Amino acid sequence: MSIFLFERNDEKSIINNLRLLIHMSLKSIELLKEYMSCKDKKILKEIIKIEEEGDEITKNIRINLEKAFLPNMRRELSRSAELLDETLDSLKHAAMLYELLKGELDKYLKDEIDLVLMISVDMFIHLERVLDVIEKGGDLDPIIKEIKDKEKFIDDIYQNRIYKYLINLEIVSFWEGKILCDFIDYIVNISDYIEDVADELQIIYLHTK
């Protein structure tokens, strides 16, 4: 059974805008990977522009929620939009910090970051499947489990591989080390935001069962 209780344009608009934020995040990840290989400033500007567009979409979701969905669903939907907006912020800040790094990532770190981004892409795809269940019905539990398992995998990569590698990495200066650590944190935090969005949407799902 669908939990998309109202099929008016107002409700569809909210869901479509949440999907749009997911697609914009996927586009930003693709651009960030490209930027990491060439540091083309046009790509950086495009990532920043997407983040600014995300702010507007998030604001519109909040405004339109005043006339859409049941009141007890609005908090979770508004929070979901804010968290998706945070993923665009993280990608923008990661790109801006990468610009400040004097050199390129060494092969080990680049491979680990590429892996984290690839898993994050997969998590976003599963998150869109959560919206499919909200619109059309279905079993949410296996999708939520996939998202949580992947987030746990990224945590493991960060704590047991990246972090341990960083401890022994020779750094030229304090600021070079801080920028590198902050860059990695912004990349890793994306999976936390995706998991939090899934949790917010699951609350709506559970309330309607």
Automatic annotation (TrEMBL):
<dbReference type="InterPro" id="IPR038078">
    <property type="entry name" value="PhoU-like_sf"/>
</dbReference>
<protein>
    <submittedName>
        <fullName>Putative phosphate transport regulator</fullName>
    </submittedName>
</protein>
<dbReference type="InterPro" id="IPR018445">
    <property type="entry name" value="Put_Phosphate_transp_reg"/>
</dbReference>
<dbReference type="InterPro" id="IPR002727">
    <property type="entry name" value="DUF47"/>
</dbReference>
<dbReference type="Pfam" id="PF01865">
    <property type="entry name" value="PhoU_div"/>
</dbReference>
<comment type="similarity">
    <text>Belongs to the UPF0111 family.</text>
</comment>
